[in-house]
Amino acid sequence: KDSEQYLRRLVQKLFNSLDPHDRKGLSVQEYLPAFTSSSKIDMELYALIGLFVNQFVLSWYKRLATDEEEELLNELVAVTAHITRNMQERCNKLNWGEILFDDLFIIMNRHLETSRIVSAQIDTRFNGESDDHDDIEFIKNYLKINKHFAIEFDNPKLERQYSNLFVKSIVSLLMPMEELDSKLSRHFLIALFNDLIIKNVIENLSDNFMLWNLCGSICDSILRNNEARSVAKKDTENNNTKGKYDGVVSIFRSIGHMIAYTTSVFTSQKQSSDTSAFSYAIFPFLSNMLQFRKRYPILHVELSFVGQVLIKSQRFTHLASNTLHNLIYNVILSDSTITSLIRNLRNILFPDDTTFNTAPRFVPTTEEELREVKDRNREKIVKVLNLKPGIARFLFKNSTNLNDDVDAFLMSFDYKLVNKVILWDLLDLLFTNIFPELLVYTPTDIISHNI
To answer: What are the C-alpha distances in Å from 402 to residues 95, 114, 118, 382, 389?
Structure first.
């Protein structure tokens, strides 16, 4: 189903109305505009967008006009190509190292600290006199410390207003200039982004069981990769007939790879910042989450001192920057990773590559079902943390601390409004980096699309 031949046949079928006589004998890339600079990503996008357009747009449009389907499809493809190329051009200018390993963890660290403070205040005099249930107290106190413009405890309309303004801003910056005055195009894209994408992301991912399942899925991937490496290692050992020096050769090969990975950049992406990776917020976040300062106070001071020294060292900054750069563009944001994400999204939304998946998602309806979801994913996290028993014992000292920390981490996602604060913070972070204009334009500019 995910083979290149199958994908080509699917795309040709989906875009069959684009004058088949004129494109006879042409490949897909020759009669469809490039969406990105990667042909592999383009094929996955053609399939996903083609399925969406055929399911939701053309089926509706055929009821209004029977002889202009080709014109509409051509226009949609052209606008989509402009939007995706615009997005890629903007994304290529970003420093993803700072976004993924610094800014992102500032948000997560603030969430973690706020959750701990609020949990400690429940049922104490710092909480004030209140007849509210503990859950309501937690949410209200959390929003007092870590608030987002879109979220208020008793004002759900505010989120919808913020979402509308948020999407209008993005659409105004994404659309081709010649399409800005087209109400039909603007309203279509606003509805697409607001109702199908943003609303679904915020409403679905803000459920606690969805975030727990997301953590569990990441753990499943780690466990599968670990198992695959173990099997490959055993096969290599069983088939190894080259002699006793193979282990030494393998060690030197690994050292060579490590040296190359830290001293060279294997991508065409420009390194856009001289900020030391040792100053990124991921390190305070990990220290805070693992309670390193509490468990190893002296070692924490020593490591903090070493970190300050490394920040001032240009050599170590250069090595860390190269390693981070290669990790981001060769692993996290590689063509294969992005292709896989788009393919998985297509398989979820259109399982049979024809109709949209309307099957209701599983939603726990009782406390027992919710607890089962939490416990199942908790076990996966504990299993991942115990892949290296020695490291786990060092970081947590004992299994009790490990279990308590995992429970506290999962509990921080218990409440939907709290999770919405995190998600909106992450969306703001992502899109204000991609569209820095959002930081300076006013609502009047956006409404009049004077951007």
So the answer is: 34, 20, 21, 8, 11
Q: Which of 421, 439, 431, 429 is nearest to 159 (CA)?
A: 421
Say if CB 112 and CB 288 are below 8 A apart. yes
What is the average pLDDT across 393-406?
92
The answer to whether residues 42 and 36 touch, using CB atoms and an 8 Å cutoff, is yes
Q: Could you tell me if 347 and 49 are in contact, meaning their C-beta atoms sit under 8 angstroms apart?
A: no
Terminal-residue alpha carbon distance, the chain = 43
pTM assigned to the model: 0.85
Tens-digit pLDDT profile for residues 157-167: 999 999 998 99
Query: What gap in Å lies between CA 43 and CA 202, rounded to an integer?
Result: 28
Structural domain spans, the chain: 1-92
Q: How many CA atoms lie within 13 A of 54 on its CB side?
A: 20
**Quick one: tokens of 197?**
């994408």
DSSP labels, 333-347: T-HHHHHHHHHHHHH
Q: What is the pLDDT of residues 340-392, one digit of tens each?
A: 999 998 988 888 888 887 777 788 999 999 999 999 999 999 999 999 999 99
